[in-house]
Amino acid sequence: MTTTRQAPARDAVELHGVRKVHGTGGHQVTALDGVSLTFPRGTFTAIMGPSGSGKSTLLQCAAGLEQPTEGRIVLAGVDIATRNERQRTELRRDHVGFVFQAFNLVESLTAAQNVELPSRFAGRKVSREQVAGALDAVGLADRAGHRPSQLSGGQQQRVALARALVTRPDVLFADEPTGALDTHTSREVLRMMRMLVDREGQSTLMVTHDPVAASVADVVVFLKDGRIADHVPLDRTAVGDNAAAIATHMARMEA
After folding, report:
1. What strands, in cross-sheet order, belong to the sheet with 227-233?
2. Sign, Cα dihedral of 134, 138, 142, 148
3. How many CA atoms lie within 13 A of 127 on its CB side?
4. Residue 4 lies in a domain
5. What's the pLDDT at 8?
6. What CATH code is carried by the domain that includes residue 39?
7. Beta strands 203-207 and 171-175: pairing type?
8. Residue 21 in domain
9. Residue 211 domain flag
10. Total domain count, the chain
11. Residues 6 or more apart from 88 whose CB is under 8 A from it?
């Protein structure tokens, strides 16, 4: 059964009492412990916490890459538990985009070809206009014919961002997307991600350890020991102050 698009749900992702346990017997580790969260459409959420707090597990469960041990996850209006593995793959293909710390571009392909590649592997056709539009959205309309070696690190990450967005996903999941970039380039990519939320209404969930990266979000969810430690809305007019406040908050959590 192929996933079909329905009227957009009010929330991009919902987690209801999600618990995730890794391992068996006496070697069990609880990565998430009863997490309930909703991520409204058209918003930018940063997920932070100390090492081992459950950040990446939350993202993987929310994106349907891992199944929770307990609880319920609704992605783009679909209860993931009601779908088999093939249907979950189709759900991710049709509704989800991913950006990671590693750019994962094919060196022998142009920027446009890299943007198109995952859709071709999935048996989906994307038009030249769609590819051009995705590159234009991330400010690389004039770099479509360039290979990764001809692009800066920030430009390569923006190609990866265009690749994630070419099918107009309901949700963009980003796992440390600026972790491999220098400060200037990181800010360039973050401005682009923020712009996509503001202009295109792109729902975005980003795992990060960087207070500056988190400062561009609408809200920061702090995790500790697999539980929600805090949920902090940010003042969009005070990004600099946000970064300092987030850094202070993280220092208290790690003390």
Report:
1. 96-100, 171-175, 203-207, 44-48, 219-224, 227-233
2. negative
3. 4
4. no
5. 56
6. 3.40.50.300
7. parallel
8. yes
9. yes
10. 1
11. 64, 80
> 15 with 205: CB under 8 angstroms?
no
Whole-prediction pTM value? 0.89
Residue 240 is part of which domain span? Answer: 11-254
Instruction: Judge residue 21's burial from the number of C-beta atoms within 10 Å of its C-beta, 0-12 exposed, 13-18 middle, 19 or more buried.
Output: middle
Evaluate the CA torsion angle 153, 159, 162, 164 in order and state its sign: negative
Mean pLDDT over the full length of the chain? 91
Instruction: With both helix axes pointing from N to C terminus, report the angle between 153-165 and 111-121 in degrees, rounded to the nearest 10.
Output: 30
CA distance 40 to 9: 9
Query: In 10 A of CB 181, how many CB atoms?
Result: 21
Structure tokens at 31: 């990565």
The amino acid that residue 215 corresponds to is S
Work out the widest C-alpha separation in the chain, in whole angstroms. 56
Check pLDDT > 90 for residue 123. no
CA distance 235 to 20: 32
* 15 closest CA partner among 40, 36, 34, 31: 36
Q: List beta partners, residue 230.
A: 222
Is 216 among the domain residues?
yes
What are the tens digits of pLDDT across the range 84-93? 999 999 899 8
